[in-house]
Design brief:
The complex is a heterodimer of chains A (243) and B (249).
Chain A lengths: L1 E12 L2 E12 L3 E5 L6 H8 L7 E6 L2 E2 L4 H8 L2 E4 L10 H11 L4 H14 L15 H13 L5 E5 L7 H18 L2 E6 L2 H7 L2 E6 L2 E7 H6 L4 H7 L6
Parallel strand pairs in A: 3-8, 3-9, 6-7, 7-8
Antiparallel strand pairs in A: 1-2, 1-4, 4-5, 9-10
Helix pairs in contact in A: 3-4, 3-5, 4-5, 5-6
Chain B lengths: L3 H17 L2 H34 L5 H11 L4 H12 L14 H25 L3 H9 L4 H11 L1 H16 L3 H7 L9 H10 L3 H29 L17
Classes of the chains: A alpha/beta (243), B mainly alpha (249).
Chain lengths: 243, 249
């Protein structure tokens, strides 16, 4: 059964269609990679999934619930997801406060916040970083804090928007390993938007290829990478699409 | 004619006045602090949320509103005093309040100057926050109130600057409180109005002494606010957020 369903979704920005008739389901417990060149609409699709944007047409269902409801209800649904953005966007405070923010918003008791933040930081390999200022972190560490900030909420759905873009290989591996563990140990469903094909290959159960706002192909990772059905997918995978 | 000699004697006199605990000087200093402090607190309490609202919301005429606030940041104190004088005088529309020549009228006049400063500096501080942080706050599940609190916290250094600038403008202002306060000894005489009076009387040493006390007071308050500003960068903000009841799906 699907955890999230995107049904015939269109999204327009200033009259331009950035997403056209997207139909995509995210299955429970899977890692789905959304691949495609820059400007394909990956970030917009993830923001729609995180209910940060409204589709102009079409519907999105999360956990069987139609998300076209009032903002209060959408917030309740959004609180069951965690999102990591391409840029870590940390607040000008300590690592602890950054990771704890979502729990504070939800009104968790102090003791539980401390326990969960410690666990989340350990999980992303940042033990002992709680008191550090966010501004003193390297790009890789900041992105791992951003990941911990999402994981601490124990989301049903983890949305990752180019989480390793511009990071060094060691941090890329660390983040990929964490994502894999979260998925296998905690059963968290993951959607990752990436233009790193090797990363998509390493991580995904299924792959969705977005191109100029259209969903060209969706399938099992092995299938898409080895026997793409669409010519455009084949061109992109062979590096012949300029982006 | 005042010269360096008066400045030197003014310094000596200031030290003398501070340590002698002259009751008039103490009363004038306390009144100055009370009037400007309350004007800054109330002006900040109104101006900061107003600035945040303008900065965070999108609405028609926003540019005009920001321009008006920026213009009001430079309100001439004498004009404020004159307007309040007309409003509060016994024949004026607010004459029935009987506020003219009271400390409350002085607070009102200074508050009118502090409010646009607090709002203007808040708009400028909140507007410089990375828009991605706002998206992160919403993504984490913040409701509009929590989102505003988070962003105001992020702009906290700028907000304290708003208070510092507002207090500076209030404590150093003379035109408005002179008109609406009347400079009555023991009741509405503040440090700045006392300095004007002493200067007019040719009492330069005493005037300079009060000027130095005024400067020291402004320095003290600014030093405290700056200290808070620096400490706030690393303090925890667990209490900043209001709890929201959990909604059932």
């Amino acid at each position: 059964m699907s955890l999230l369903e995107v049904v015939n979704v269109y999204k327009l920005f200033v009259g331009r269609e950035v997403l056209k008739n997207i139909c995509l389901d995210v299955r429970r417990g899977e890692i789905l990679s959304v691949i495609g060149p820059s400007g394909a609409g990956k970030t917009t699709l993830l923001k729609l999934m995180n209910l940060l944007l409204y589709p102009d047409r079409g519907k999105i269902f999360f956990d069987g619930v139609d998300t076209e409801v009032d903002e209060k209800r959408r917030r309740v649904l959004r609180r069951e997801m965690g999102m990591v953005f391409q840029h870590p966007a940390l607040f000008d405070t300590t690592v602890f406060n950054n990771v704890a923010l979502g729990l504070m918003i939800r009104g968790f008791p102090k003791k539980e916040i401390e326990k969960r933040v410690e666990d989340a930081l350990n999980y992303v390999g940042l033990k002992g970083f709680a008191k550090r200022k966010a501004s003193s972190l390297s790009a890789g560490e900041a992105q791992r804090v951003s990941l911990a900030r999402a994981l601490v909420l124990e989301p049903k759905l983890l949305l990752l928007d180019e989480p390793t873009a511009n990071l060094d290989p060691a941090n890329v591996l660390q983040i990929e390993e964490t994502v894999r563990r979260v998925n296998s140990e905690k059963g968290v469903t993951v959607v990752i938007a990436t233009h790193n094909l090797l990363q998509a290959k390493r991580l995904s159960d299924r792959v969705a290829f977005l191109w100029m706002g259209e969903l060209v192909e969706v399938g099992e990772s092995k299938e898409v990478f080895e026997n793409p059905k669409s010519e455009r997918t084949a061109l992109y995978l062979s590096g012949k699409v300029v982006y | 004619m005042a010269g360096w000699e008066e400045v030197f004697y003014g310094l000596v006199k200031a030290v003398e006045l501070i340590f002698s605990g002259d009751p008039d000087v103490v009363q004038i200093t306390i009144l100055s602090l009370r009037v400007s402090g309350l004007a800054t607190l109330i002006g900040g309490a109104l101006g900061i949320p107003l600035g945040a609202l303008v900065a965070l919301r999108t609405f028609r005429g926003k540019t005009l509103v920001v321009s008006v606030i920026n213009t009001l940041m430079g309100l001439p104190p004498v004009l404020v005093g004159l307007v309040y004088y007309i409003l509060l005088s016994s024949t004026g529309p607010l004459g029935f309040l009987r506020l003219l020549y009271t400390p409350e009228a002085m607070i009102l006049a200074q508050l009118t100057m502090v409010l646009p400063i607090a709002a203007g500096v808040t708009i400028s501080s909140v507007s410089t926050i990375d828009p991605k942080l706002r998206e992160v706050a919403v993504s984490l599940g913040a409701n509009p109130l929590q989102e505003t609190a988070i962003l105001l916290w992020e702009a906290r250094v700028g907000l304290l600057t708003a208070l510092v600038v507002g207090f500076g403008a209030a404590i150093s202002e003379v035109g408005a409180i002179m008109i609406v306060g009347g400079n009555l000894l023991g009741y509405t005489r503040a440090l700045t109005t006392a300095i004007v009076l002493l200067t007019n009387q040719g009492e330069f040493v005493e005037a300079i002494a009060l000027g130095i006390i005024l400067l020291a007071l402004a320095f003290l308050v600014n030093a405290i606010l700056t200290l808070i500003q620096m400490r706030s960068r690393s303090s925890l903000f667990a209490q900043t957020y209001t709890r929201e009841p959990q909604f059932k799906r």
